[in-house]
Amino acid sequence: MAEFIKVTEQSSLYDNLEQMSVTELLTNLNNEDQKVAIAVRESIPVMAALVEKIVERMEKGGRVFYIGAGTSGRLGVLDASELPPTYGVSPDLVIGLIAGGDKALRSAVESAEDDAHKAWNELKEFDVNELDTLIGIAASGTTPYVIGGLRDARENGLLTGSITCNPNSPVAAEAEYAMEAVVGPEFVTGSTRMKSGTAQK
Predict the structure, then answer these.
(1) Is 122 considered catalytic here?
(2) Which residues are 67's β-sheet partners?
(3) What is the pLDDT of residue 1?
(4) Which pTM value belongs to this model?
C-alpha cells in the first residue's frame, strides 16, 4: 500500500507572515489558491466515474449523503442546501450531515468527530438503502466520524466516495471512489479551511 502522508499538516512554504505587507500576504494567498484548480483537475477521472454511478442510482430513487466534521462537514451541508434553490432538486435527494449536528454549523462541538459509529447511526434515521450514496469529506483523511461512516455504509451496500486532501488516507481506503485533491501545505500551517476547503467545495 502507498504511504499515507499528511501533507495538510506540513509546515507552510512561507515564513514570517507577520512581516509581510498586506499586498504580499494577499498575493501569496492568491498564488497558493491557484494550486487548487490543478489539484481538483487530477481528481476528475474518479469524480466522473462516481457521478455516473450516482446518476444510475438516483434514477432509481437513490439519494446522496455527505458526512464530515468541522469545515468539511459545513461544506457538505452547504452544498446540499444550495442544490434545491439552484437546480430545483428536492431537499430530500441530497442531504448533508455534520459531526455534532446543526449546532456544529456555527460553533465547534468538541470530540464530535471522534465517534466512528455516530455517522452510521445518523444515516439509519434516513432509512438508507443500497440505492443511496455516501460521500465522506475530510481534509486530513483521518476523521473517525467519516472513516466509520464510510466503512459501515460500504458494508451495508451503499455506494461510497470520499473527498480528501492528503494522499492514501484512511478515509480514502474506505471509499470505492476516492477523490484526493492534494493542494500541498496550507499558507497558514495546518489551516485546512484554506486551500483544502476550497478544493473540497
Answers:
(1) no
(2) 97, 136
(3) 58
(4) 0.93
